[in-house]
Design brief:
Chain A: Its main location: membrane. The complex is a heterodimer of chains A (about 625) and B (about 180). Chain A is an all-alpha fold and about 625 residues long. Chain A has 25 helices and no strands. In chain A, helix 4 crosses helix 15 and helix 13 crosses helix 15. In chain B, about 50% of the residues lie in helices and about 5% in strands. The longest helix of chain B is centred in the last third of the chain and has 15 residues. The chains are: A mainly alpha (about 625), B mainly alpha (about 180). The interface between A and B is large, with 65 and 67 residues.
């Protein structure tokens, strides 16, 4: 059997070996190791021969990926489809198709997923992609809310679903009696891994406002981390003979330690990567390689130490991003982005193909009670979790999470690739097939049903809401003015809870980290550009002061309906607002122009403009003028 | 930061200030530290340069600074108010008056169309044309103007914002 171990693909070598033996046994092989359909010309040199088995494994993988990519091409050319159907649907359908083909063609065991292959090769690209494209500043501004949703929400879901499922198993103890509480908890920990990002692509055309975007994105990322940690914890519990209260306590400590440890490892590698990138100016071609190597190294190191690899790789990406982007050339940055999208795309495609293959297998264990209750519980617990958490968090946030946002977060909790992989990797036990079947059903249901109906439902919701309380134009304008005002005042006061630590960190960043980690020329140039922009902005503001004399109209005419509509459209699109900017959402499958490049960068005060504190690091010209006009002594 | 008492003693008329605005000593000290850090030249006044604007002459001293910020305290509506006392600075009416002043630049008690246009212009991005701005301003005045004098008085302003939760929008929570 030719050795295939150098190939990093998701089959375990033994699996492929059995495959090959299967082929040989079915009579297609021949006597020599060269095998194949060679012409039987003895003792002469073979001019033409086909040796399929030599390349079989990589060939088939490439074929699968090629098929999926061609399908994606077709998908995007198919008119209105991408706006209605999330791309995950397409991938699953391709997976089912490939699974069907494999099932039809081959009668031996199809390729399976091994734990190592998944955790070491398929998962890192997906997570790295998400971590690298995380909008840093926005993320940290909303970090509290994101952690609230991700950690507490996931715990709520896991415990809720797990306990309720155990109740169902007790009730149906005839068929489900041998599913223990720990098994239910293990199952619920993996089924709680949501992928709401999948749904954002459907909202391409209209408002995915910034706040919703970062909440959904951040939550999905951290939710993955929490899920994997809980999953591993419950798995190790299952391996213990008996679980005591002390074990549970230790488990809790372990979760915390694992998370923080991963964070530390990620930070370390991120800083080293940033430092290395400083010196890559003479070898620009390999600069992107360092980004990938260091990220992957951080992941592997933390996996080695049994810490959370996801936390490590995300922290590494977030840490090194700003320094690396400053240090590397435009082209290197672009190639990093493209490679990340490519790899995460391939990863996700492969996982969904395994899903398809595994769906069309013979052995499924079905149980109406289990499957239906899982579906119901998933929906129920997610909805209640989001509603409860939002009710609490809205008291503290200035920009409330609206009902529409809550609906999108809750209903958009599709399950995806991670769920499937985790369920596949459970240690074997009698009811494992049931779990796999249930997971597949949940994934298919959420992706197809929820994914395709969320947009019409949201639009229905908005229509209803709009009919009920249409805000008047006055209200919109005045509210927006107040938003600006408050932002300015918050900056003046140096809003302790949020901006204090942010300012402190920015100072530390500018003074030490940037100097150390960013190349010389890059530093100077950026500040001069900034000064220029600031001066330009001041000129603009000075121009705004001139009031053009406008004739006062004597009569007011009634406004037509179309005018009202156009007014509203103008307002929603153009009012400077901080938290409802329309930006294209993160998508695993496309690259948009990064918001930082196109939109407004927060302006940092150059040293020469005075002031060691930079209270105005985040404001726009509007806020300047409005806040200034308010800070006037009045009688 | 220094101890509370020593900082408080540096501020003249601090008890009156606290009574008028309703801030606690700890808040006054914090605001004083913030004032000092903004006031780089240590003149005791904040000039517009400290805020980054240019070409204006007005200055702000610490008392005015605190009085202005007192508007942004969350309103406390559980205590029954003594009607003989003057309106607290952070009540809904006071906040609305503050917002009204942002529009009413010539301080004649009415928001004229020109003033409204100016504010709108600074809030919108560049793509909006002048006619669109004017039509929006027209609509705003039309919605609010009840006595048909083509300007928005304070009463009309207040009425048009009845449904908006002013306390939520104009409060900084930590100033409670």
């Amino acid at each position: 059997v030719p050795s295939l171990s150098p190939f990093p693909f998701p089959f375990s070598p033994s699996m492929v070996a059995t495959w090959m033996d299967g082929e040989k046994a079915s009579g297609l092989g021949s006597n020599s190791s060269k095998g194949g359909l060679s012409l039987d010309v003895p003792m002469a040199l073979r001019v033409f021969s086909v040796d399929y088995y030599h390349v079989q494994a990589p060939f088939e993988i490439v074929l699968w990926i090629m098929l999926a990519s061609l399908a994606k091409l077709g998908f995007h050319w198919s008119g209105r489809l991408p706006a209605v159907v999330p791309e995950s649907c397409l991938l699953i359908m391709v997976g089912l198709l490939v699974g069907g083909v494999i099932y039809g063609v081959r009668h031996s065991a199809p390729p399976t997923l091994s734990a190592d292959a998944f955790f070491l090769f398929l998962l890192p690209p997906i997570v790295l992609d998400a971590g690298y494209f995380l909008p840093g500043k926005l993320f940290f501004e909303n970090l509290g809310t994101i952690l609230w949703y991700a950690v507490l929400g996931t715990l709520w879901n896991v415990l809720g679903i797990g306990v309720c499922l155990y109740g169902v198993c007790l009730l149906a103890s005839g068929s489900l009696g041998d599913v223990s509480l720990l098994h239910c908890l293990l199952f619920s920990s993996l089924i709680a891994a949501v992928d709401p990002v999948a749904v954002l692509s459907v909202f391409q055309e209209i408002h995915v406002n910034e706040q919703l975007h970062i909440l959904v994105f951040g939550e999905s990322l951290l939710n993955d981390a929490v899920t994997v940690v809980l999953y591993k914890l419950f798995e190790s519990f299952l391996r213990l003979p008996v679980v005591t209260g002390v074990d549970v306590l230790l488990g809790g400590c372990r979760v915390l330690g694992v998370g923080l440890g991963g964070l530390g490892v990620g930070l370390f590698f991120g800083l080293v990567a940033a430092l290395t990138s400083r010196f890559t100016s003479r070898a620009q071609v390999i600069a992107p390689l360092f980004v990938f190597l260091y990220s992957y190294l951080s992941y592997l190191t933390s996996e080695m130490l049994h810490l959370s690899g996801i936390m490590a790789i995300v922290t590494c990406a977030v840490t090194m991003k700003q320094y690396v982007e400053a240090n590397l050339s435009e082209r290197s940055n672009t190639s990093i982005q493209y490679f990340l999208k490519m790899w995460s795309s391939v990863s996700e495609t492969l996982i969904f193909i395994f899903l398809g293959v595994s769906t069309i297998q013979d052995v499924h264990m079905w149980s109406w009670a289990f499957v239906c209750s899982t579906l119901l519980l998933c929906l129920l617990w997610r909805a209640t979790g989001v509603i409860l958490l939002t009710a609490v968090v809205n008291k503290v946030r200035r920009n409330v999470v609206t009902f529409r946002d809550q609906f999108i977060i809750a209903y958009g909790g599709l399950r995806g690739a991670i769920c499937f992989s985790l369920v596949f990797l459970i240690d074997d036990f009698p009811k494992k097939r049931l779990f796999i079947t249930t997971t597949i059903v949940v994934i298919l249901f959420t992706v197809f049903v929820q994914g395709m109906t969320i947009k019409p439902l949201v639009e229905l919701l908005e229509v209803k809401r709009r009919k009920r309380n249409l805000p008047t134009v006055s209200e919109e304008i005045h509210s927006r003015l107040l938003d600006h005002l408050l932002a300015g005042i918050e900056d003046v006061v140096g809003y302790w809870g949020q901006h204090y630590w942010k300012d402190k960190f920015e100072q530390f960043n500018q003074r030490y980290l940037c100097r150390f980690l960013i190349r010389e020329e890059r530093q100077a140039r950026s500040s001069i550009v900034r000064v220029y922009q600031e001066l330009e902005r001041r000129d603009e503001r000075a121009d705004e002061e001139h009031i053009t004399h406008v004739d006062v109209r004597c009569q007011t005419r009634p406004h037509l309906l179309e005018e009202m509509d156009s007014i509203r459209r103008i307002l929603t699109r153009n009012l400077h607002s901080f938290n409802n900017k329309q930006i294209p959402a993160y998508s695993r499958h496309t690259l948009h122009g990064t918001p930082a490049a196109e939109g407004r960068k927060p302006l940092r005060r150059h040293q020469s403009l005075g002031g060691k504190h930079s209270p105005w690091s985040q404001v726009t010209p509007t806020v300047h003028s409005i806040t200034h006009s308010s800070i006037q002594p009045y009688s | 930061m220094g101890s509370t008492n020593s900082t408080l003693s540096k501020i003249p008329n601090v008890e009156e200030l606290m009574r008028e605005t309703g801030f606690s000593p700890a808040h006054i000290v914090r605001l004083y530290d913030r004032f000092e850090s903004l006031d780089k030249e240590k003149t005791g006044h904040l000039r517009p340069e400290d805020f980054g604007a240019i070409n204006r002459q007005d200055t702000v001293d610490f008392h005015s600074f605190v009085r202005i910020l007192a508007h942004f305290r969350p309103a406390e509506n559980n205590r029954p108010r003594d009607p003989s006392l003057p309106e607290p600075v952070n009540s809904r009416i006071s906040k609305l008056k503050f917002a009204f002043q942002l529009y009413d630049l010539d301080k004649d008690g009415k928001i004229s169309r020109a003033e409204l246009l100016q504010v709108l212009r600074s809030m919108m991005e560049m793509q909006v044309t002048e006619e669109q701005l004017e039509s929006i301003a027209d609509r705003t005045i039309q919605e609010a103007d009840l006595d048909r004098d083509d300007a928005i008085s304070f009463e009309e302003f207040r009425k048009s914002l009845e449904k908006v939760n002013i306390d939520h929008k104009m409060s900084i929570r930590f100033l409670r």
